[in-house]
Amino acid sequence: MRVAVIGAGSWATALAVLLSRNGKEVTMWARRQQQIEEMLEYRENRSYLPGVSLPPQLRLTADLELALADAEAVVLGVPSHAVRETIKRVAGFLKPQQHRLIVNTAKGLEEGSFLRLSQVIASELPDVFRDKIVVLSGPSHAEEVGREIPTAVVAAAAKRETAEAAQDLFMSPAFRVYTNPDVVGVELGGALKNIIALCTGISDGLGFGDNTKAALMTRGLAEIARLGSSLGAQPLTFAGLAGVGDLIVTCTSLHSRNRRAGILIGQGKKLEEALAEIKMVVEGVRTCKVARSLAQNLGVSMPITEQAYQVLFAGADPREGVARLMQRGKTHEMEEVVLNQHW
Ligand SMILES: NC(=O)c1ccc[n+]([C@@H]2O[C@H](COP(=O)([O-])OP(=O)(O)OC[C@H]3O[C@@H](n4cnc5c(N)ncnc54)[C@H](O)[C@@H]3O)[C@@H](O)[C@H]2O)c1
Ligand SMILES: O=P(O)(O)OC[C@H](O)CO
């Protein structure tokens, strides 16, 4: 299968390398010609994925039409805020008979519309492409995938054949792909865990310990599942790779940009300073704003997300945010379940 990878950041590059190694004919598109020149010169994406060689057969271009010209699968690897403008441009070159798979790999929610990214993509494409959209998510840092470190992810699509086509495309000895029909849950798990990763980073930056991190991750997963279920996700999905799996990797890995940004904020840096230092996209920041509004609109309780919002956008002291979480009113651990039973 011929593949166009759209974007040339860390994740797009790691996936383009993986697909090339899988024997696919891959063209990777970057919006800046200068980045293409750099990658052509060094056969390495030094800015976003240093230390990983670009296979000689991987083609590179800043010409979007050329990238899509003979592709059958399109893999979108741009940040969430760029998904709509990118798919709008891509749409102009898509042909229903030729382009059989549209894979989104970004993790986020659209500001303003509150849409999941597969919904954003669907809204910009003719109906004939609806069943070709797949979401690839799960615990997968580019730095490790680029080095062929064993990784397992999940491909979610409304149609089973579509998810299986993505599974066939990406599957390799070091990259195991499961399928899942729950697009809503897989997308929300991938997007919302970034907020919790910022929080565990803040906790680490404040000098708190593993107990605090475990509490944030566990209660974070509870509020992810609460919002997800209210939006139609299957609760069990949050126990899978796109849920707890991605939460674990992002909250504990040194590769995580969200966690690293959180550490800097916990150490006293302003949000803008932290983002400038990380340089790469920190999706949890925008997602926090969107998720907080969604939760408020739906009447869903997300106390950790609320405190993250206060710290990121309202100038709250992170230490006081943790104190407010610790001193909330008493509650059951499984309140949604327990309150509906005799106990
Ligand atoms: N890095 C990972 O390990 C990883 C793993 C899984 C998923 N993701 C997701 O993939 C998405 C991309 O993340 P990343 O890590 O590759 O980011 P990155 O910061 O490494 O790279 C972002 C790339 O997008 C480009 N870009 C920025 N604005 C753009 C625009 N308006 N149009 C087109 N291109 C634009 C940048 O020039 C850069 O090349 C995110 O949603 C992230 O959550 C990342
Ligand atoms: O580096 P992060 O925090 O953006 O996380 C990247 C991926 O989502 C991990 O699966």
TrEMBL record:
Keywords: Cytoplasm, Lipid biosynthesis, Lipid metabolism, NAD, NADP, Nucleotide-binding, Oxidoreductase, Phospholipid biosynthesis, Phospholipid metabolism. The active site is at 193 (proton acceptor). Substrate binds at residues 107, 257-258. It comes from the Bacteria. Sn-glycerol 3-phosphate binds at residues 107, 138, 140, 193, 246, 256-258. Pathway: Membrane lipid metabolism; glycerophospholipid metabolism. The keyword NADP applies. Its EC number is 1.1.1.94. The keyword Cell inner membrane does not apply. It holds the Pfam family NAD_Gly3P_dh_N. It is found in: Cytoplasm. Residues 182-321 form the Glycerol-3-phosphate dehydrogenase NAD-dependent C-terminal domain. InterPro entries: 6-PGluconate_DH-like_C_sf (IPR008927), 6PGD_dom2 (IPR013328), G3P_DH_NAD-dep (IPR006168), G3P_DH_NAD-dep_C (IPR006109), G3P_DH_NAD-dep_N (IPR011128), NAD(P)-bd_dom_sf (IPR036291). NAD(+) binds at residues 142, 257. Residues 3-162 form the Glycerol-3-phosphate dehydrogenase NAD-dependent N-terminal domain. Catalyzes the reduction of the glycolytic intermediate dihydroxyacetone phosphate (DHAP) to sn-glycerol 3-phosphate (G3P), the key precursor for phospholipid synthesis. This is Glycerol-3-phosphate dehydrogenase [NAD(P)+]. It comes from Carboxydocella sporoproducens DSM 16521. The gene is gpsA.
